[in-house]
Specification:
- By secondary structure, this protein is of the alpha/beta class.
- It folds into two domains: about 140 residues, Nitrogenase molybdenum iron protein domain (Rossmann fold, 3-Layer(aba) Sandwich); about 110 residues, Nitrogenase molybdenum iron protein domain (Rossmann fold).
- It contains eleven helices and twelve strands.
- Helix 5 runs antiparallel to helix 6 and helix 6 runs parallel beside helix 11.
- The relative contact order is 0.12.
Length: about 270
């Protein structure tokens, strides 16, 4: 008698955009279109199943050597993806683009995340664990992250006015309705541009008028460094200028295991 591998029926799940997706279970060939979620897949023990990822998937080290690079998060190489014959593609509403996702979803199961809060990120981790056959690992990881944030010292009664820059020329900040905005609050900052939406361009005049007491320059996507501090100090002489780890403010996958401790270090440094 032939010893055939067990084939389970597809698992039909709802993604974070409310789409119903039938996924072969467990998926054997996964393409990840989001760096944060690529790292999550590897940390859930799915490195061998990840066959495609983006050029921005820098964690874990070596991931881009073990899987095919299919382009960026907003410029997929559809031919490369098709050649990989994925049985699951994982994307994100903000980081990817609708037209490209729709084109992929016409041929493959595509599961999408939609994340602006810590609660949504923990939900994503649990759901990805479930749909990839790593439910226990996903649940445990989400619980560990939740516990680390619960242990974070509460911020001062009065949050410190701050601006968080993600880009230069033009200046762009993380405003309201973003995951970064929630991380700022958890680190004791009040986003001076929280009344604006998403990632607006900001003029020097707007920055001066907002009068942040701290200006946080993110290490990504624009690689702010110490050489840029004087530029912002000239714009806001009374503000404290700090370079911060952009991954620990914006990556909403398993890297969140490190975020609460990092935010606590920022709190302690004030």
């Amino acid at each position: 008698m032939l010893n055939l591998p067990l084939t389970l029926p597809p698992l039909t799940v709802t993604d974070q955009m409310g789409r119903r997706v039938a996924v072969p279970f467990p998926p054997r060939r996964i393409v990840s279109l989001v760096p944060s979620q690529t790292e999550l897949l590897f940390d859930l023990g799915l490195g061998e199943q990840v066959v495609g990822l983006t050029k921005f998937c820098v964690h874990p080290a070596g991931a881009r050597q073990s899987a095919t690079v299919i382009g960026g998060t907003k410029n997929f190489d559809f031919d490369k993806i098709e050649a990989l014959q994925p049985d699951l593609i994982i994307g994100n509403k903000e980081e990817n683009y609708q037209e490209g996702i729709e084109q992929l979803a016409a041929r493959h199961p595509v599961w999408m995340s939609d994340i602006t809060t810590l609660t949504e990120s923990l939900d994503m981790i649990r759901r990805v664990g479930l749909l990839t056959g790593r439910k226990e690992a996903g649940d445990a990881l989400a619980a560990d992250i939740a516990a680390s944030f619960a242990a974070l010292a509460p911020p001062a009664a009065e949050l410190l006015p701050a601006a968080y820059f993600i880009w230069r020329k033009p200046y762009m900040v993380a405003a309201g309705g973003t995951f970064i905005d929630e991380m700022l609050a958890r680190a004791g900052f009040r986003n001076v541009f929280g009344n604006l939406g998403r990632y607006p361009e900001i003029s020097p005049e707007q920055l001066r008028a907002a009068a942040p007491r701290q200006i946080l320059l993110s290490s990504e996507p624009y690689p702010f460094a110490e050489k840029h501090v004087a530029e912002f100090q000239q714009l806001c002489p009374d503000a404290r200028i700090r370079i911060v780890d952009g991954e620990l403010f914006s990556w909403y996958g398993s890297r969140l295991r490190l975020t609460a401790a990092y935010l606590q270090s920022l709190i302690d440094a004030d």
